[in-house]
Write a structure and sequence with these properties.
The chain is an all-alpha fold. It contains 5 helices and no strands. The protein has a domain at 47-98. It has helices spanning 7-16, 27-38, 47-61, 67-78, 86-98. 0% of the residues are buried.
């Protein structure tokens, strides 16, 4: 009687193919982790970018409409007390024409 390699041995061989050997005390895996972390890209913001981010945040916190100023002007117009600043208006119009 001749003993041939059984199907069970082939299955076990295929299951163990490509598996990593177990490393003792986990030291090698800790080294691999630290190497992977060291190889990652790093990014940092310049001081200018940090200032811009802070300014953007504070700008977003401000309301779009300054309601107290709008209400004051509305009141002046309704009471007939609002006077158009002609000098300012003329300079703004002239700047617009020069552009």
């Amino acid at each position: 009687m001749k003993v041939e390699q059984s199907q069970n041995n082939r299955i076990i061989q295929k299951q163990t193919e490509g598996m990593n050997p177990i490393e003792r005390n986990g030291k090698a895996s800790e080294n691999e982790r630290s190497e992977k972390l060291a190889n990652k890209d790093l990014a940092s913001l310049s001081e200018h970018a940090k200032i811009l981010a802070k300014a953007s945040t504070s700008l977003q916190e401000q309301p779009e409409i300054r309601s107290e100023k709008v209400n004051a002007l509305r009141e002046q117009i309704n009471n007939g007390l609002y006077q158009i600043p002609v000098d300012q208006l003329a300079s703004i119009l002239l700047k617009g024409l020069q552009s």
